[in-house]
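Why should sequence recovery work at all? Because a backbone constrains its sequence more than one might expect. Tight turns favour small or flexible residues, buried strands favour hydrophobic ones, and helices have their own preferences. The token representation captures these environments compactly. In the example below, the structure is given first.
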């Protein structure tokens, strides 16, 4: 049995005060393609193409395996889909955080809430040792999400962006298990 797959299936969905993080179903593909089909979203990611089509979403979901899992971000009260949050690189014992929200849902703390939930699951449910994150240097909103989740700067670098069609400058961050545990204890006190 695959421990990572079992951990995901046994613990889903994940809930926060306002959100549920749920496995993506085939019925969600068209909605996700429509919601994420904005260059403002795609230009800040490495792998989201623009335009985003149902075919590209379906291909991305089919390519996920043991090393990456994505969940749809939904409003908890009505199930309305808001975006995606993911952890990649799972086979290494480390994760890489990814997320995007539809433009209408920006600025309400939802990305931070979804990111915190999947980070908690990564450390608590998957026993990861570290989670990494990156954002474009031109994306202060994503930087703020990463910082609010407790990530520490790890330097700068370059990333290929499918939507941009080239390399873009990024900031790298990491959150290790020890720091995460300290932040969780501090939040409870």
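From this structural description, the recovered sequence reads:
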């Amino acid at each position: 049995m695959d421990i990572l797959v079992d951990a995901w299936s046994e613990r889903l969905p994940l809930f926060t005060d306002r959100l549920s993080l749920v496995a993506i179903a085939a019925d969600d593909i068209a909605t996700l393609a429509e919601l994420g089909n904005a260059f403002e979203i795609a230009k800040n990611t490495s792998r989201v193409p623009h335009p985003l089509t149902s075919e590209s979403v379906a291909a991305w979901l089919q390519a996920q395996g043991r090393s990456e899992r994505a969940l749809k971000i939904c409003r908890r009260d009505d199930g309305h889909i808001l975006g995606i949050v993911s952890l990649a690189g799972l086979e290494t014992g480390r994760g890489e955080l990814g997320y995007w929200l539809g433009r209408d849902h920006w600025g309400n703390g939802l990305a931070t809430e979804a990111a915190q939930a999947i980070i908690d699951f990564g450390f608590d449910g998957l026993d990861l040792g570290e989670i990494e994150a990156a954002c474009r240097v031109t994306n202060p909103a994503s930087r703020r999400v990463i910082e609010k989740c407790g990530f520490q700067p790890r330097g700068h670098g370059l990333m290929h962006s499918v939507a941009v069609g080239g390399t873009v400058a990024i900031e790298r961050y990491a959150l290790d298990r020890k720091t995460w545990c300290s932040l969780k204890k501090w939040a409870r006190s």
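A few observations help interpret the result. The longest strand covers residues 166-176.
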